[in-house]
Amino acid sequence: MKDSSDFGYSHLPRPARKHVSPRKRPLQARSQATVEALLKAASQVLVRDGYERMTTTRVAERAGVSVGSLYQYFPSKEALLVELLERRMAGLRDTLLDALQSTAGQPFKTRVRELLSSLLEFKAREVKLGIELARQTPRLEKLGAIQKVTAAATQLVAAVIEEHRAELKVKDSKLAAWLIVQSITGILDAAITDPPLPLEDPRLIEAMVKMTLELTRSV
Amino acid sequence: MKDSSDFGYSHLPRPARKHVSPRKRPLQARSQATVEALLKAASQVLVRDGYERMTTTRVAERAGVSVGSLYQYFPSKEALLVELLERRMAGLRDTLLDALQSTAGQPFKTRVRELLSSLLEFKAREVKLGIELARQTPRLEKLGAIQKVTAAATQLVAAVIEEHRAELKVKDSKLAAWLIVQSITGILDAAITDPPLPLEDPRLIEAMVKMTLELTRSV
Amino acid sequence: MKDSSDFGYSHLPRPARKHVSPRKRPLQARSQATVEALLKAASQVLVRDGYERMTTTRVAERAGVSVGSLYQYFPSKEALLVELLERRMAGLRDTLLDALQSTAGQPFKTRVRELLSSLLEFKAREVKLGIELARQTPRLEKLGAIQKVTAAATQLVAAVIEEHRAELKVKDSKLAAWLIVQSITGILDAAITDPPLPLEDPRLIEAMVKMTLELTRSV
Amino acid sequence: MKDSSDFGYSHLPRPARKHVSPRKRPLQARSQATVEALLKAASQVLVRDGYERMTTTRVAERAGVSVGSLYQYFPSKEALLVELLERRMAGLRDTLLDALQSTAGQPFKTRVRELLSSLLEFKAREVKLGIELARQTPRLEKLGAIQKVTAAATQLVAAVIEEHRAELKVKDSKLAAWLIVQSITGILDAAITDPPLPLEDPRLIEAMVKMTLELTRSV
DNA sequence: TATGAATGAGGCTTCATTCAT
DNA sequence: TATGAATGAAGCCTCATTCAT
Q1: Would you give the DSSP letter of residue C114?
Q2: CATH code, domain carrying D210
Q3: What span, in angstroms and rounded, lies between the C-alpha atoms of A211 and B214?
């Protein structure tokens, strides 16, 4: 099974981090429900209060279980965050892969447009959660660099560029990919949080498409 | 004195926030030195431990004064952060304004290039501090939206674009400015943290220049 | 069945202590096996982690059963300890009685020597378990004074001295017995934990023999 | 200054154990008083409830200060224990040294008697504290072998035996010393906790003296 | 003004025990 | 009878902030 954070491209061994990976796999249906309730609650509290103010007790309460149960499945407060993050990463990966697969064979521009609009849609979902997760990610980095996502996305984009090399005039596809990912990220994150125009306005996507094409030309 | 966060363009009244502005204006030399020592210490601890684990006691110790003294000049832990942030913002503002003034009258492309390289240089200084400050900024938002910086920078860029309207084919200079600022921000922040190539490599700046020009054309 | 802690000499009624005696007599083979597995596991965890950090869950896991099953046979964590202690006491009692019976009719010195070497051998077995049990004994005292062992051993020694009164010049056989038991205990416990010379070295036993004889002379 | 645990004989470097040594040296009189109050309270709670049931909150309460203050001077619950233990060790050392110095030049038997009665008196003070401290010592061992005391006492006794070698027929003074210390310890500890006769009864001391002399003869 | 001792609410986490399945 | 999920009281410890000296 693919690791949700590398998009199936890199194969870094995932070190057994202490206190971060889920403590026990829920076996019965009942516990499965508990885990889901906890994650949902964690997500809500995280969004409402921020990670610093999120307390394990509050999460448990909101999930309708006891703290003890929380710790039965998540060895630490941080583990909740990590699980939430990993799920989001998996979602992002699927979004990107879907967009590419469903446009296989079509021209580069079309695929880029599709990719961007899928991405925008994905990021627009649970915006605050995304922000808070991003905010906490640097902290986690020390514990094991979970967010290879950007790296993986960059590789993915580079691969797509290579696929379309004939149509484009790229020199350094890796650098182009990196620039695209970073600039798009900057724009999308800001657009989501504090949009300068309605997210549906086609100009937003079109500008990013143009930008992307320009970068595949001039880099 | 101008507010460091608005680049002198907007004139938002600064609401009387509780506990964030320095408690007293240090007039004497000794006090001034203490304040500086505290800020320096705060910066170091912030970088080393992160905001959450930065304790006022530790900051005071490292500054060589007592906690009591710290609270004489900064009414709260957050006030240290705010001051640090404001100074950084002021630095950024000065950097941008300098770059523009020193290239007044020159072609747009030249000015953009100068702006970008000044910005890169600025951000490369005290990278970790910048990151940590950015990380904490959303929290502060609630307390008084200090980071109008981006907004201000956007206005500034829009103004420059307008100045050069003749040379360019912009339709919506504000939107173009916004896109430029966000994409450049995305790239620079990533470049600083985890550079895909040496920061001195001219391709980095050139790519951003191209991107900027493209956006002034297609938006 | 005799109470393992009184060596069959005293007949204290055992008060109904809450939660300490095994919950049910395991009659079936399977249950018997479970109980043994639990006790073995408890012993191992006790030795490895100490009583405070020994958790019932860990014991159950190591025994290959569920916590629920543990509580089916032992009403509390403490009950495990008590059972372990009682078994050890029974072993000690048997060791002493054997040593005395097998040397019946022989001179005092011979019997003492035999007693001491049997005792040394017994204590050398499962040293760490013995230490941990001893450590926890004072706590249990409140709950029911299980460790009459020393008292019983003292009585036993006193009885032996009386048997040999003719050979000896004892005045107060009880006091002598008490002193012998305590001094020997002090030496053996230390010898086991941190031996000043190989336990087989005859000087160890001989010194204790001499000591014992001296005490039967001068007390 | 002599380390309280080695009686001035050995010179092991004391490793900086984390979390065990006092956190900060109290500078002002006020804090000195706080520290003393805490130790006194700790001692009382320790005796009344045992180490496991002793809570830092309870200690602080009884000392009339806040938990925060406790942690200002003792980095952990264990640190309280360690300090208490070290003070007791220092007291023991002083007791022994005093007894020896005040009887310098006198015959061996006299010195032994003096030593024993001083020791008995010392141990009779704060009996329960002594017991509880002893009970917890094995745990601490891992953290830095604080209780060199016995070893030190053994060396001391060996030295005294050597001083009187002329009067005695010892072969192995070290072994003799070890046996003496351990047997005496066994007897004293039991006598204190559960005396078979009034502690003042001269027979107790005399029996130990005889035992000691016997051991210096036959070992 | 400077010092640093004191405060105490509140966070994270553990673990013996119960009980529905 | 076995299982293991759930419980929740209770413990240890941190740290921003205050205030007597």
Answers
A1: H
A2: 1.10.357.10
A3: 7
pLDDT 10s digits, B117-163: 999 999 999 999 998 998 888 777 655 544 578 888 999 999 999 99
User: d(Cα D117, Cα D143) in Å, to the nearest integer?
Assistant: 33
Range of the domain at B148: 12-217
Mean pLDDT of successive 10-residue stretches along chain B, which has 219 residues: 41 40 61 95 96 96 97 95 92 93 95 96 93 84 61 93 93 96 95 92 96 95
State whether residue C160 is helix, strand or coil: helix
CA distance C177 to chain D (A): 11
In a domain, C1, yes or no: no
Please report the pLDDT score of residue C12 as a whole number: 29
Unique residue bearing structure tokens 């053994």 = D154
Is any atom of nucleic acid chain E found less than 7 Å from the CB of residue A77?
Answer: yes
For residue C3, give how far its alpha carbon lies from the nearest alpha carbon of chain D (Å).
Answer: 22
* Residue A95 forms part of a structural domain: yes
Question: Does residue D1 sit within a domain?
Answer: no
Nearest-CA residue relative to C1' of F5: A31
Q: Do the Cβ atoms of C52 and D50 come within 8 Å?
A: no
CA dihedral C110, C113, C119, C125 (to 10 degrees): -110
| Structural domain count of chain C | 1
DSSP D72-126: HH-SSHHHHHHHHHHHHHHHHHHHHHHHHHTTTTS-HHHHHHHHHHHHHHHHHTT
CA(C107)–C1'(F1) in Å? Answer: 56
Give the nearest nucleotide to A66, CA to C1'. Answer: F7
Determine if the pTM surpasses 0.90. no
CA atoms within 13 A on the CB side of C73: 28
- B chain contacts of residue A131, beta-carbon cutoff 8 Å: 138
User: By C-alpha distance, which of C130, C196, C194 is closest to D145?
Assistant: C194
In the numeric block, the tokens 């608005």 are attached to B6
Rg (CA), chain B: 19
Which chains have 3 or more CB–CB distances shorter than 8 Å to chain D?
C
Instruction: Please indicate, yes or no, if residue B191 is contained in any of the structural domains.
Output: yes
Question: How far is the alpha carbon of A136 from chain B, nearest alpha carbon, in Å?
Answer: 8
Contact criterion met (CB < 8 Å) for B175 and A138: no
Contact D17, D144 (CB under 8 A): yes
Physical contact, B and C (3 or more Cβ pairs within 8 A) = no
Helices B108-124 + B149-163 axis angle, to 10: 160
Chain D residues touching C191 at Cβ < 8 A = 182
Give the model's pLDDT for residue B193: 87
Residues 6+ apart with CB under 8 A from A43: A84, A126, A129
Q: Is A46 in a helix, a strand, or coil?
A: helix
